[in-house]
Amino acid sequence: MAVFLRKLLRIGKLPSELREAVEAEGVIHYAEYVPVTRRFTGKVPGKRSVGSVTSFSGSLVFTSQRVLGTLSTVPKLAGRAIDLQWDAPQSGPVIADISSAGLVINLDVAQVDPRCSGQLSLHYKEPLSDDVLARLPRRSLAYDVPPEFIFRAVGVPYHP
């Protein structure tokens, strides 16, 4: 029922301006309304959690130039969990692994903001064929995120 409601309200659809941008880049894989599981154990100012699991809906796109993963909680608005060029420097506390089960993003939140502690993960549950995986330039990525990313991902207002 939840998936039907999200599709009806278009929660998890890639916003039109992003869709137009990725279509011009040579799409390898494009999926909307992808189930995303967020797992968080730890603490951030305003929230303490032990094994919190929450489901979202989002989009997952691989182009010849980048990987793009969004999360949606309301219609026509999507926050970017990953928007990274394949040839970007591979450094930072966020590790994204791509496999036949989808995209998994893992982060030790203390490496981004010392006020926080614990682990955050996002799993985009989109089956990927061997053909799609073979066309990707890499299967593991590392990148930086601002502290605000953690707060938004766990649903807490960000105060610098």
Explain the overall architecture.
The structure is a single chain. The chain is of the alpha+beta class. The protein has one domain. Helices cover 18% and strands 49% of the residues. It is built from four helices and eight strands, in the order H-H-E-E-E-E-E-E-E-H-E-H. Strands 4-3-2-1-7-6-5-8 form an eight-stranded antiparallel beta sheet. A hairpin with a 2-residue loop joins strand 5 and strand 6. The radius of gyration is 15 Å and the shape is globular. It starts with a helix and ends in a 6-residue tail after the last helix. The relative contact order is 0.21.
Brief rundown of the structure:
The protein is α+β, with helices and mostly antiparallel strands and 160 residues long. It has helices at residues 2-8, 16-23, 130-135, 147-154, and strands spanning 27-44, 47-63, 66-74, 77-85, 94-99, 102-108, 117-124, 140-143.
Q: Rough shape? A: globular
Structural class call reads alpha+beta
Spans of at least 5 consecutive residues whose pLDDT stays below 50 are: none
DSSP summary: helix tally: 4
Feature tags:
160 residues, alpha+beta, eight-stranded antiparallel sheet, 4 helices, 8 strands, 49% strand
